[in-house]
Amino acid sequence: MKVFDCPVIGPRPISEFDYGGEVRRPPMEADAPSWAAYVFNRQGAPGLLREWWYHRPTGRWYVMERDTLKDEVVRFIDLEEVRYDIPA
Amino acid sequence: MPWRLLKYGLKSSHNEPRFFPEAKPLKPHYDVVIIGGGGHGMACAYYLAKEHGITNVAVLEQGYIGGGNTGRNTTIVRSNYLTPEGVKFYDTSLKLFEDLSDDFDLNIFYSTRGHFTLAHTDSALRTMRWRAEVNKHHGIESEVVDRDFIAKEVPYMDLDCAGTHPVMGALYHAPGAVARHDAVAWGYARGAYNRGVEIHQKTRVTAIRTQGDKVTGVETDRGFVSCNKVVSMVAGSTPRITSMLGLETPIEIFPLQACVSEPVKPFMDTIVVSGSLHVYVSQSSRGEMVMGASMDPSVLHSTRSSFNFVEGLTDQMIDLFPFMSRMKVMRQWAGMSDITPDFAPIMGKTPIDGFYLDAGWGTWGFKATPVSGKTLAWTLANDRNHELIEPFRLSRFTDFELVGEKGAASVGH
């Protein structure tokens, strides 16, 4: 994969992006083992992976779903889909 | 020197016997099934048979022997790591390496070169001093050296790095070595085979059968085999195996690329690494420059190569060795590194009874081949973690006892 066809800023070379890793949602209340699982464990097996990508020139984060076997972006995710409320 | 080499030199005909005869059908039951026929899997099989008398063992390999990361690394062996756990572990490995040619009666081309890790910044130099102190405490030859020393040992290197990143000093590790990676896998495999271990190439494990929390056998594309113990030694394919058991781990797969130049006359008798420039280079016994860089930036389960890698690597390499601009890159390739958050492996027992892991080998697997085989064999035979691998257990993440091995290759400081 050399170019991201971004729906917001159009096609951009991959070299303009930084990798932010898997999108994960923290457990709001958790015991130590499940907190450790959230912090350290990852979806290691090949398949669709939701991950953060940062576009350096425009300073904006994107979430994309990528096939980690074929290295193809399957879809861009609306940030509303991954948003969660931090408990007050 | 291996005696075989001498006999070979004095003989007029060279009819080499096959290392491994044709595969037989799988048996219905084995005491131990080893998934993965790379260096680690073969070493484990070898020590199981040699030191523990366990020979009803099958090594199942989806491709061919040593065709994965064993054949894709840059063959560097060293023990100047940062943590006491890492230093003890890798030094045991280095000492085992030194005797392998005699053990196998097979020349593994083990060549002690001396290993320079260059420092281009104050902070890098500070990490080097820290590493040297930890190393010396454990009796390992490792010291911080200045520019004059480097200039004498590596005279063909531009210490000013074209003026962009002047070298301030280096961590020098005299026992740092290179070895022929294929021979290591083949030597272990032949030793295991001669002691009764079965090696099945082109045999893919498709599922692991359990009853309750206990392993009962493995499904393969050649049928089911029952077994009491399964050990996964598959590096970049680890998450595919652990997901068969629903076992979550911190392992993520990133491609690590490398390349070799066309062969030239021997001129470089040291290994040079720069963490800041993300390059490492040595000259192979065939004269090729063996070069590697940092990992690819994002997760990918593929061994594809990229132009970006060669472009980025050569850009830095030419700053250090300007004359290399006239050399051609002959071949490039990639391996899938199984990276852990603390740059240390994950070894030993798991929550599933009879399932053992030898994983998380990231960019540091080849040098650990002998010691990982030896300690895993002990762990399988005694059903408890060997003391050297206890710090690397999977449960360290839930115990919040990470290792923090920043001495690993391809890790910036």
From TrEMBL, chain A:
Gene3D superfamilies: Folate-binding superfamily. It holds the Pfam family SoxD. It comes from the Bacteria. InterPro entries: SoxD, SoxD_sf. This is Sarcosine oxidase subunit delta.
From TrEMBL, chain B:
SUPFAM superfamilies: FAD-linked reductases, C-terminal domain (SSF54373), FAD/NAD(P)-binding domain (SSF51905). Residues 32-76 form the Rhodanese domain. Signal peptide: none annotated. Keywords: Oxidoreductase. This is FAD-dependent oxidoreductase. InterPro entries: FAD-dep_OxRdtase, FAD/NAD-bd_sf, Rhodanese-like_dom.
